[in-house]
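Researcher: Batch entry, complex prediction.
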Amino acid sequence: MEAQSVLKQALCYHCGDELSLSKISYDEKKFCCIGCRNVYQFLSENNMCNYYAYNDNPGTRIAELGHFEYLDEPAITRQLIDYSDQENTIVTFYIPAIHCSSCIWLLEHLYKVNQAIFNSRIDFLKKQVTISFKHQQISLRRVVEILAGIGYEPLISLQDVVKEKSNSVNKSLILKIAVAGFCMGNVMLFAFPEYFGLSELEKNFQHLFGWLNLAFCIPVTFYCARDYFKSAITSLKHGMINLDTPLALIIAVLFIRTTIAAIFNTPSFADTLTGLVFLLLMGKWVKQRTYHHISFDRDYRSYFPIAINVLKEGKEKPTPIHEIVMGDRLLIRNGELIPADSILLKGEAWLDMGFVTGESDPQQKVLGEIVYAGGRQIGEAIELEVVKPASQSYLTGLWNKENYKVSTKTTNFNDSVAKVFTIAVFVIAFSAASYWYYLNDSIKAWSAFTSVIIVACPCVIALSTPFTLSAILSVFDKKDFYVKNTDAVEQLATFDTIVFDKTGTLTSTEQANIHFTAKLTAYEETLVASLLYQSSHPLSRQVLKTLKIKTILETEHFEEVPGKGLKAMIDGIEVYAGSKRMMPFNIDSAENGGVHIVINNEYKGCYAVEQQWRKNLNQLIHKLQHEFKLALLSGDTNKDEQYLKLIFDEKVQMLFNQTPHEKLNAIKQKQFQGEKVMMLGDGLNDAGALKQSDFGIAVTDNINNFTPGCDAILKGDSLHYLPNFIQLSKDGLKTIKVCFAIALIYNCVGLFFAVQGTLYPLVAAVLMPISTITIISFTSVATRYFARKNNLI
Amino acid sequence: MSILYFLIGCSILMALIFLLAFFWSLKNGQHDDVHTPGIRILFDDDVTEEKSDKDHISQ
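Model: Structure tokens for the complex:
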């Protein structure tokens, strides 16, 4: 217990980071940085320390606060607000930082901070908070600033994630399931006496039961099963047969026979009809399961801010991105993104084009040069003149190309089987009917014809696919592999080529090795540590962690230039740390990035950040090489080619210095050669290629980070499971085929009765649920077995 | 035995009421978020400032 409490002491009370050298404390609690302390102070002043009672170190470290001036513009805020009347406004934000019960507590007690916020509700899984406030007393901007100030900055982007998601909830399907379940339960109740044979007394009720059953079948057929009829009619119009065609036919036949049974007071098929529709809808529901917290359809709009500062007559005015026109003058501050292709007019531009090219070192631009959208300015504020609106920029052009997929979508197993199946059923039904008609038994002919169609129900096929694939989906998601939907799981089994991006995909962005190119004395290390200690830049903190210095010295004349570096006088010695352009004189070093150190006007070396290859990369590539054709597309220089040659086979195609458009074209060319391509990439620079490929997987270290539109999102730590994932989806298809075989056996038994025209409704009513239960239990057992075999459970 | 006709009517009526209750709850958004309320109910009522703070330090 004591050891644990000591451990707690060494962590920041707010965010749980290591305390390194800090002596920042408040209320006897220690903090890693001023930001964390300020949050604590703010919360304790507002009587909200319960926040820390529910979890240890629930906070998140606050990066630089954003600018929210644009939230004062009614034109912009109108898009964000859910509802507004004369007094109250309701707004919903997506807040990625929500992660624990303390977050819920804090955000639902915002009224303690400001009375004007009278209600706030969290949806934990969606990471959304709905806030109601009185807009006469508090502005939207102030609300957002309060949220940002306590470490919960909402993500406000051009593509409004919040509104897009709320539409996806399919309530009408749930309503249909409820109605079908209700009717099925009641029909079963009335059909039950019939299962055991009717006594004389019960025969009185049979007529009533028949009509009641028919009454329950009407909503099931015309409301719950409506989509099947619609789908069948559209596909028949196109001269195609999909799985819904035979299903619609069966439902229709069952309904007609139930009606006839009610009129002539004979046993009816109502229980089969309602049960069938209920199960089919359940299958549909299982298939539709989605991830609330992940968006697969993000494009550049969710990366771009919602507004940008435009200079008009010397004044800044926040303007929505889509209203920016050619000739507008933009003001871009440190850390802000350039939203449209423009010409540099004023200031020193150092652009981090990491998202566009994958290149991590910032590039310098000179006055009059064109800067492309997607770059992030590092350093002082610059002024630009727009030459192309945001939607037509070089980068966003990746999304506008309409000739993307040449509809390579394969017809899935279900629909291809459905065709054969339907034809076979019709042949059997007609031959049975004509046989009996030939024997002058027209009643039996009708009975045999309808019975064959009823018994040969492909509902098992309709159910086995969603149940198997969604079981696989949940196995995947336990290993942090999030596939868009069940159709995508099926497609995962059909590739012959895998293309990798390098930076961020094969290397990890979070685990980086820091090493110093030369040697520093212990005293010099102390000097560097004392300087870096003053800075909150992530790189400074990373270097500081590797230094492990216990004491720090007093600094004077400290100066930090954003995005460039630091300098100060320590112990009477001038110390510089930062990028090359911060240094007092030109230095000659092979390293472009990293933290360069100059002490006493002498260049000492550089803390170089080396990206680390993902673990088990060797084995992964080795395994994949046997089965697939591999390729590598990198936007980076070929500095790692030697190392990659060791891992990859000689034949593997490796292309370096690829622009986003070149990547896209490389994929296209492969597809043109008839290959089915799976692409693994990360940032925006792979977005085009991911979209073009037959199956795009976005690799990320944090699921909440920006990922471009794709078919699946894979957490970097699970990359080495890729061969297992592919194998499991192949095994899943095998399972579906076995299910199909089992269903055929049941169908043959049913057909034996059906062709004789002696199918008693009870047989149908028993046969169908039994076969369904067999299939569902078989799929779940088989999926678990295969998942275990592939080391995924 | 004609009482059975009445009982059958009752059973259907009851079932209908439950179905409508479900419709109402669905429309009302009660099934939209089934995770957060489970956490929310565990929060204590507000304790006075000094007390809650000291409690935590003593831990």
